[in-house]
Write a sequence for this structure.
């Protein structure tokens, strides 16, 4: 149900705690004791794991309180902060600090949150804090960590109440940090620009055409397109553009509950929020999709994976699985942006997730549209598998033009210069090179929270003569401000002729 890639190439995954026993025992004879659990007060099985991407192995982790439909973000120091959940987990903050041994596990902080957060959204901020916004019947936001434990950490946001409807199509709001430091917030069909520092709505954007809700349970997905500084001297001139794809028509959730599964939305909308008077530009996907996960690839293309053609999110409310991932190329001709990829054989419906890992693959897991763990006798059984999707740039015929980073420091500074050494067998020239940083997203319920790519300014590319004929040096300039790239860990990719290197972790210091 939830996934977060961490900078030690491990993925934290977790589900919920109140479905009863899982198929994985906790280690060392540990058991979870929770008198508030609705299924088992004593549970010796795991509801969270740490997956090692490189070793393809995992170990169980222990969460004490219910993490059902919660949210998360990674702090600048690499620690995962997980917020809220259901029942006894709704006001809990949980933290996970990655380690190189077998000892790190969840730490829970009781009643840290000022309001119950269930189906909320998190976003990392320029000052390294996390904003936690919305949730079921919560029309407010708050921050972690609190600036002052004695003062109120809660800010009301009337917009969240205004956009709620009978189907609650404003859960898991789409939240993106824009280059001006303010937040783009989209719920249902409406969106605003929020100055969260002063709790002031600066503007409301035009309503997205077609009037199809896009948030849970209509569950489309949204991304801030890559911020490109490769040719800009003035960071204020960067183009900031939001894309939202998929969703479901109004009342689809109610219809599905009565056995009428309506076709999902087949549209994507793009809004250039950096324009003074932005207008939505609509495009048609090859087929409808609800509950799809949208990811930024190292090339700057997008991948939409998982989901269904009919119905909505919710128990047993989706039908007609979409097995084919779609690649979307934002800068191609308008009629040539969508490509249909090879299909999976596994439906990934409600409560599935997807994350990009440094080697360029997409790790996909989950799917449990049932109100319980049901492995037989149901339309879409609970799926405990992981699979890897290989985007086209990983095809064998691209090996000769795929670069490999051989040397880079582990720190990138704002506006500072950095040399990157890489090798490539068949060099196509410096104009074929770009360098990008990508923050890994917290994936749940069709939205990758804090997902962000910045294309760095490339100052020079030259042959590195002290090594082999295939060695090169690229010099780049780091992002200009923390509003462009909040502090923390990013995957850095050298892209050559449309083929990315394996990513290397680099930290932008606060």
């Amino acid at each position: 149900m939830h996934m977060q890639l961490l900078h030690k190439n491990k993925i934290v995954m977790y589900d919920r705690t109140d479905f009863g026993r899982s198929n994985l025992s906790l280690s060392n004879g540990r058991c979870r004791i929770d008198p508030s659990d609705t299924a088992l007060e004593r549970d010796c099985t795991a509801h969270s794991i740490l997956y090692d991407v490189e070793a393809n192995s995992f170990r169980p982790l222990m969460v004490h309180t219910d993490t059902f439909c919660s949210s998360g973000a990674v702090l600048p120091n690499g620690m995962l902060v997980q917020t809220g959940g259901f029942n006894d987990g709704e006001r809990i903050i949980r933290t996970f600090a990655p380690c190189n041994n077998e000892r790190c596990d969840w730490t829970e902080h009781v009643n840290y949150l000022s309001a119950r957060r269930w189906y909320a959204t998190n976003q990392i901020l320029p000052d390294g804090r996390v904003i936690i916004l919305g949730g079921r019947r919560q029309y407010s936001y708050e921050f972690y960590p609190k600036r002052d434990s004695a003062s109120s950490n809660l800010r009301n946001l009337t917009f969240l109440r205004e956009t709620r409807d009978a189907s609650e199509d404003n859960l898991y709001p789409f939240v993106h940090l824009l280059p001006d430091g303010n937040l783009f917030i989209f719920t249902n069909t409406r969106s605003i620009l929020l100055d969260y520092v002063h709790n002031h709505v600066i503007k409301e954007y035009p309503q997205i055409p077609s009037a199809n809700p896009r948030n849970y349970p209509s569950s489309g997905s949204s991304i801030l397109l890559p911020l490109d500084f490769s040719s800009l001297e003035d960071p204020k001139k960067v183009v900031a553009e939001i894309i939202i794809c998929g969703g479901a028509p109004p009342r689809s959730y109610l219809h599905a509950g009565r056995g009428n599964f309506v076709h999902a939305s087949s549209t994507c909308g793009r809004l250039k929020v950096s324009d003074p008077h932005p207008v939505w530009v609509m495009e048609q996907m090859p087929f409808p999709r609800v509950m799809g996960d949208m990811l930024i690839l190292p090339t700057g293309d997008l991948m939409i994976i998982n989901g269904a053609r009919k119905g909505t999110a919710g128990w047993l409310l989706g039908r007609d699985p979409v097995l084919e991932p779609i690649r979307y190329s934002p800068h191609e001709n308008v009629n040539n942006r969508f490509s249909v990829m090879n299909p999976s054989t596994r439906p990934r419906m409600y409560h599935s997730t997807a994350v990009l890992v440094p080697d360029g693959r997409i790790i996909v897991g989950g799917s449990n549209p049932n109100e319980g763990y049901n492995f037989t006798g149901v339309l879409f059984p609970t799926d405990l598998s992981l699979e890897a999707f290989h985007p086209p740039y990983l095809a064998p015929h691209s090996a000769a033009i795929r670069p490999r980073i051989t040397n880079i420091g582990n720190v990138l500074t704002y506006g500072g210069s950095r040399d990157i050494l890489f090798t490539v067998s068949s060099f196509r020239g410096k104009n074929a090179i770009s360098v990008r940083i990508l923050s890994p997203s917290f994936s749940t319920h069709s939205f990758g929270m804090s997902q962000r790519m910045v294309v760095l300014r490339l100052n020079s590319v030259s042959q590195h003569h002290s090594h082999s004929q295939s060695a090169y040096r690229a010099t780049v300039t780091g992002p200009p401000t923390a509003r462009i790239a909040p502090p923390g860990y990013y995957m850095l990719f050298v892209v050559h002729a449309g083929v990315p290197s394996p990513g290397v972790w680099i930290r932008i210091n606060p």
Notes: The chain has a mean pLDDT of 95. The CA atoms of residues 73 and 81 lie 5 Å apart.
